[in-house]
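Good morning,

Both structures are done.
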Amino acid sequence: MSLLSQLFLWFISDIWTTITSLLIAYMVYKMAKFYYQYYSLPPGPFPLPLIGNLLAFKTKQHCNYVLTKFAKKYGPVYTLYLGNSPQIIITDAIIAREAFRKKYLSGRPQSYFGNSFKTDIIFSDYGNHWEALRSVAHSAILKYSSNEQLVNVAVDCVDQTVQTMLEREGPNKPIDPFNYIYLTFLNILAISTFGKTYSIDDPVFKQLKYMLTDVNEELATRRLLWEISPIVRWIDQKMIRKNEKNFSDLIDQFIDKYRLHYNDYDSSIERDICDALITAKNNALREAKESAQYLTDENLALAIFDLFFAGTNTSQNTFQWILLLLSYYPSMQTKLRQEIDSIIGDRMPTHEDRQRCHYVMAFIAETLRFRNVVPGGVFHKAMITSKIGDYTIQKDMPVFAYQGFILRDDKYWENSETFIPERFLDSDGHYMTARSPAFIPFGVGRRICLGEKLAIVDLFLVLVRFLQSTQNYDIVLDSHNGLDILPNGSFNDIYPHKYTIVLKTK
């Protein structure tokens, strides 16, 4: 071998040795930084590089149970790694309330999924844009929540639902209530925002239901992997492009529906939430308010989309639990019917009836506590380096209150795993408006759920009218498909999608 060849081989070998050494040094540095951060944060399960604590969720049980196990082991504030990203989880009501009342813990972290919403309320970061949009949307929703028109809308939607159930399924036969209940709450919101209603066979209803609900079940944990892994997103490019297009098309539909409202808008008449938002925008422009720049048609349409995306799913899922629980506990169903019959009778319910139907309100509150359908809440973000208890939380770190645990924390709730509506009644049997600080079914702090008031009103009106419309029947549980609903047991899932009822003729 010539000297030149030997020098070349030596050079190549030396280069590869150098590159390998640099790569090893870089990996050691990253590992050291990763674990230095781990030991500086609140305690939590030991993470692995790249995947963090994801292996802990390799179980048939819902992630809710994994998070509960960690909460009991690591205490009121702990750290969980999703990939290389640490998440701070608060499992104590007092700490959560103290933390999230502060502006600097009211941010929203960047996310792959959240970026699809562009400039909405749920996923926008804290700032002038968010404050302006939330303020007008919250005012519009509050105003409509106390409007008598909402009563008429809810009653009509429930009556139509019960009639359709009986016509299509018949009494004394098993009924899967999921689509019917979903349609009820979707129609209440569709009429309340756009003056539009759908039927059970309407292709538009099926499309909306798919994009707002079914796609989540279809993608399952895939969407979580998209959030934390660019590699998985690259592998799933075709699926992601299809999902993004469907989502973008749906948002465009909402923007178009909002803009169509201008065609017959009358400032002297507020027909729905959409009109209220247009009025708020026009007032801000006329008064030259600083917030006017954020009240664009697209932003306001996305605020309405938030109501559909979050409100329909959470309200209808909560009512699925209400229906399942009153079917499982016939004595409670009887008590609900007796109160409604004595207070309201056959007339339509009113907003004032919420002050008189104490057991109905307690039943709703206990359902929200017992089976909260958003146990993890929504992520916040530290906007500056902050303190939570004794721990320092770095800027931009995600933080959330694990409200599913807080709502069933034995420290705040006696017999927390038992469904007891009476816990929300005082000694005189009146519904208690002053409740435990651990009652946070809609979140806590500055970013508490935008539609809380509307959700409570809807649940009350739908429950009362549903029981009125089925007064000639007993609602009995036909099958729960393996769900364990023993009084002191636990459900195998937080979403009761798979059960059937029977409207049994009395």
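Second structure follows.
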Amino acid sequence: MRLADFIQATTERILDDAVEFAITQAPAGVAFDEKTLRNDIPLILDAIVLDLRTAQSSAQQRAKAEGRAPARVGPESAATSHGRARADDGFGVNQMIAEYRALRASVLRLWAADQTLATGSIEDMIRFNEAIDQAVAESLLEFSRTVESWRQVFLGALGHDLRGPLSAVIGTADLLVERIRDTPHARQAERILSGGVQLSRLVDGLLDYSKSTLGGGMKLQRVACDLGEAIAEEIELLRAGLPEASIALQVEGQVRGAFDDTRVREAIHNLVANAAKYGDERAEIRVSLTGQTDHVLIAVSNAGEPLSGDALNTLFDPLRRGSNAAHKGEHTSLGLGLFLVREIATAHGGDVTARSEDGTTTFAITLPRRVA
């Protein structure tokens, strides 16, 4: 009996084995009924049977074996649905993959016990393994997407819920600072206010990250503005907030255009604050703004320890911090600053790059004057 026919004839036995194993993989403290654990497995077996009975060229077989099979079109596959369901049910990725290993072993064990190998059996086993691997890939992709989606929902909800209490803390601290100014307790009140403002920045960054990831990009409020004036104002605020840092600004050319100047200021703030944290404390932080024919170039440079190629490749990844953050005493950052810089540049239709040469690290943001 060919393998496709065997799977159809013994589907119930295969499902019984699959459900028995799935019960052992269920998250601790969670009980599933048999119907829930079976979910998409019959449809996955149907898809495998169809694959086994579909003619396949040697080129198609090689492409599938090397992970180059064309992407599926049309309705989602049972494997995709299975991956999402297992993520929603709280399974871990290893638990979900283990189900496929058990399903593969169950089918081949039952088939081998039922008959002696016949003509075509080896080909059937190869095709079956390829079909299982394809189902694993589809399930894993959707599983990962679902887990990431839930993570972003959690981060967004956390940031949203923190905003209310933080507003109360900042408002009360601000009132205290005004009421007890020039008293022995003024410094303590100012520290509470400063800490609240810093936490508020972290929460805002968390919400921006969550919205950007879930919504496919950062939303801008473009207005006709002079970036030179906007960035000059931000630099003055940075000088006040970072009194020990030396910050220089140079503006050349025409720098007017349709930009979200608030977001651009946020990007400059993140880059300069990043330079102050991780760069040479004795070196000047240089900010330059240059107007070109069709775009504006913003560069932030500082001297410090050189960055490796691996570090440069991951600088803009979310939830990462500089490798020297620990010995710099930086424990209050979520590692979203450079990620948000990239999102701001991308939302404007531009980009951001980083390079580290001769002891100087430079971040360059390119912002088109108009969106294509």
